[in-house]
Design brief:
Oligomer: single chain
Largest sheet: 3 strands, antiparallel
Organism: Pseudomonas lactis
Number of helices: 2
Strand content: 25-35%
Protein name: DUF1161 domain-containing protein
Keywords: Signal
Length: about 80
């Protein structure tokens, strides 16, 4: 029972942290580092309002409480 309560507590803390969201520039830097670590080049990352992602981009993250998205474009 204690393990169950601990798990529920940890999940609620994680959910609160995720709802607050990261600043977009911080998340954009983390995503760029992951892409660079895989050896990719010739890409762009843009911060856009949620739902305003250009059709030739792919959403790779959300930030600022889900109000903005990080959009990725190859080339």
């Amino acid at each position: 029972m204690k393990t169950f309560l601990l798990a529920v507590g940890l999940l609620s803390i994680a959910g609160t942290a995720m709802a607050a969201g990261k600043p977009c520039e911080e998340l954009k830097s983390e995503i760029a580092a992951q892409i660079d670590a895989k050896g990719a080049s010739g890409y762009s990352l843009e911060v856009v309002d949620k739902g305003a992602t250009p059709s030739d981009h792919k959403v790779v993250g959300t930030c600022e409480g889900g109000t903005k998205e990080i959009a990725y474009k190859r080339g």
